[in-house]
Amino acid sequence: xxxxxxxxxxxxxxxxxPKPRPAIILxxxxxxxxxxxxxxxxxxxxxxxxxxxxxxxxxxxxxKQKSYAKCEALGPVHKSRLKSxxxxxxxxxxHEIETGVKRVLGLK
Length: 108
What we know:
108 residues; alpha+beta; seven-stranded antiparallel beta sheet; 2 helices
């Protein structure tokens, strides 16, 4: 499998979900290298109070529509469920997602 890097967007086949969905790799690179699972934040086109709007910096995300990080749905995914890399999140966007996840988890 290709190297998996924090901030990348991958198409994921989540368990108990009917079709593949894009998700952002949030776990740090040493974890991604050593563990069979990675931590992802799913992506949706539906806004919500706990979701973070994703920037499309010159098309680097690979997303075709206005999209949002579902910070409330953070979770592990086995690497075998990562199907293809489609883009990356710019640094500022990743920082905003981190802030959203901290808010959901009650972290400062």
